[in-house]
Amino acid sequence: MSEDPAMEAGVQEVRELLHLSEDMRLGIDVLDEQHEELIMQINHLHRLCECGSACQEEILKHFDKFMIEADKHALVEDALMRILDFPDSEHHMAEHVDFFRLCQKLQVKLESGECVRGDMFYMKNAFIRHVLDDDMLLAPFLIKARRSKREYRKAFAEILVKH
Ligand SMILES: [Fe+2]
Ligand SMILES: [Fe+2]
């Protein structure tokens, strides 16, 4: 048993699955759907991690998939902030970069077969905190500045083609 109570709490917490609670909903379908998908993937990762080294290959494969989806999501938010001139976009984009750094560290540990329970806990919390703090600040701005879905899609398509 860990002597670090915070880490121990993390190990307990990591066993719990996430769900997109009402207070995490932004009211913007495209972003809520992506958050929901990411949560499903995080939960799947947790289940795989519980089965331990026997699932190592599947964990790594799924983690790659998760990173691709998370990257796509960040790309969409970054694009919206740029298109609509969100005033705090630099800070928000820097938070996305920090989250990816956290995920990359986790990926390195997964590849080396280290225990990642504590790291999974921090990653999960970083995700929730980002949605509740940063995305929640962005949402009213996006809703106010909402343009037609067609315009958004066209802008996304242009950005996705470039990446
Ligand atoms: Fe975000
Ligand atoms: Fe987000």
Provide the structure class: mainly alpha
User: Helical region count?
Assistant: 6
* Mean pLDDT across all amino acids: 83
Poorly predicted runs of 5 or more residues: 6-14
Helical content stands at: over 70%
CATH C-level name: Mainly Alpha
CATH topology: Four Helix Bundle (Hemerythrin (Met), subunit A)
Most strands sheet: none
Architecture (CATH level 2) name: Up-down Bundle
Order of helices and strands: HHHHHH
Number of separate structural domains: 1
Number of distinct beta strands: 0
CATH superfamily: Hemerythrin-like
Q: Which range does the strand content fall in? A: under 5%
Report the bound ligands by name, code or SMILES: fe (ii) ion
End-to-end Cα distance, whole Å, is 45 Å
Kindly provide the radius of gyration, computed on alpha-carbon positions and rounded to a whole number of angstroms: 17 Å
